[in-house]
């Protein structure tokens, strides 16, 4: 979908919410936001932003994708879809910089290699993030150090942000 339509959707939605609460409009918020979403989706489809099996580089939008991480991107986004990020065959250079995985209204699975110490910073809102030790974060933030070899410090930091979705991290 074209970013300009999503930008327009969020701007108009924000203006509506400001107007509703500032001017005390008696209008159903859910109905208006759902209507705005459907109009934005329709315009996006009309002007070249199809919704079927679409993903580019590190973004999954309304589809499914599997990423075998060997190098490259630092940010991965899964929106209205499902993504699997497999770090098990990643080279050492991949773990030199921090990474971020964002899941919104979707599902993601992150597979980490067993010998890497990773600090996992999770931020959850109305979602479920399952950490390698089996603990689950549904709302709020938490930091977790997965250190299978007892190094005492992480090789890299992985930030996980999940909103209205599900993320499972295995190590």
The tally of beta strands, per DSSP, is: 13
Mean pLDDT: 82
Q: Give the count of structural domains.
A: 2
The major beta sheet can be summarized as: 7 strands, mixed
State the helical fraction. 10-25%
CA radius of gyration? 19 Å
Overview in brief:
The protein is an alpha/beta fold and 171 residues long. It is built from 2 helices and 13 strands.
How is this structure best described in words?
The chain is an alpha/beta fold and 171 residues long. It has 2 domains: 3-46, no CATH class; 54-170, no CATH class. 22% of the residues lie in helices and 38% in strands. The protein has 2 helices and 13 strands; from the N terminus they run ααβββββββββββββ. It has helices spanning 3-22, 29-46, and strands at residues 54-56, 59-61, 64-68, 75-79, 82-86, 99-104, 107-111, 118-125, 128-130, 136-137, 140-146, 156-163, 166-170. The chain has a 7-stranded mixed beta sheet with strand order 1-2-4-6-12-8-11, with no helix packed on it. Strands 3-5-7-13-9-10 form a 6-stranded mixed beta sheet, with no helix packed on it. Helix 1 (3-22) packs antiparallel against helix 2 (29-46). It is elongated.
Layout: helices, strands, pairs:
Layout: H1 3-22, H2 29-46, E1 54-56, E2 59-61, E3 64-68, E4 75-79, E5 82-86, E6 99-104, E7 107-111, E8 118-125, E9 128-130, E10 136-137, E11 140-146, E12 156-163, E13 166-170
Parallel strand pairs: 2-4, 3-5, 4-6, 5-7, 6-12, 7-13, 8-12, 9-13
Antiparallel strand pairs: 1-2, 8-11, 9-10
Helix pairs in contact: 1-2
């Amino acid at each position: 979908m074209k970013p300009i339509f999503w930008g327009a959707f969020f701007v108009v939605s924000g203006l509506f919410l400001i107007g509703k609460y500032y001017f005390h409009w008696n209008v159903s918020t859910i109905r208006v936001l759902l209507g705005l979403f459907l109009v934005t989706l329709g315009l996006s489809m009309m002007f070249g932003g199809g919704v079927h099996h679409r993903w580019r580089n590190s973004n999954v939008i309304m589809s499914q994708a599997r990423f075998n991480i060997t190098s490259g991107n630092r940010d991965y986004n899964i929106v209205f879809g499902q993504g699997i990020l497999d770090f098990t065959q990643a080279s050492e250079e991949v773990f030199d910089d921090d990474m971020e995985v964002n899941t919104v209204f979707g599902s993601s699975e992150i597979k980490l290699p067993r010998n890497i110490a990773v600090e996992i910073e999770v931020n959850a809102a109305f979602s479920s993030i399952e950490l390698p030790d089996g603990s689950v974060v549904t709302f709020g933030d938490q930091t977790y150090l997965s250190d299978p070899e007892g190094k005492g410090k992480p090789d890299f930091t992985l930030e996980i942000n999940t909103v209205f979705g599900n993320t499972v991290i295995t190590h």
